[in-house]
Specification:
- It contains 7 helices and no strands.
- Helix 1 (2-10) packs across helix 3 and helix 5 runs antiparallel to helix 7.
- It is mostly helical.
- It has a single domain (43-173), classed as Four Helix Bundle (Hemerythrin (Met), subunit A) (Up-down Bundle).
- The chain has helices spanning 2-10, 14-19, 25-65, 72-91, 107-137, 143-162, 164-173.
- Helix content is 79%, strand content 0%.
- It starts with a helix and ends with a helix.
- The longest helix has 41 residues, at 25-65.
Amino acid sequence: MDNLFNQVVNQQDAIRKLLGMIPGFKGYFERENRRSSDKLVRDMLAARFEEAWGRISTLQRDLISQGAISMIDDLEAGAIKIRQVIDRVKAATYGYSGFFDAVKINEKELELLYNYDLSMVDQVEVVGHAIDNVETSIGTDGLPAAIRNLTVAADQCVSVFNKRSEVITNSTAQ
């Protein structure tokens, strides 16, 4: 988490560093750097979920080639949920609000949002393991259960990400 923030800070140009020395600008730059860090985290999450979605597509093609067409629709339910997560992660509100935005996100809330997004990495891991299970279950009687497990894991990802907005609204309401 701190590595991403430090990476953003270290990439600043000389003018930004100079302006950072002016009273009042430092807090602005810290929020802006955290906003950039938040975007980096979400881009990484979207990429990881894209990889998972691609693996599911490969498994669907494998099932078709093996004649297990009856399983395609069930597997597609998990793929759709993963696609929802990808779309929501990519379209999520930046972890910072401008001066005139309806909901103000301060540095404290931004830190909570940043940590929440990082916790989504655990969700990617769960989905990855579920995909591994589907892959090893192809051709066995355990395939339907493995696909159901993947669909549940994917649905859980959607639920967890949907709660992201609560981090903003609950922390700004206090």
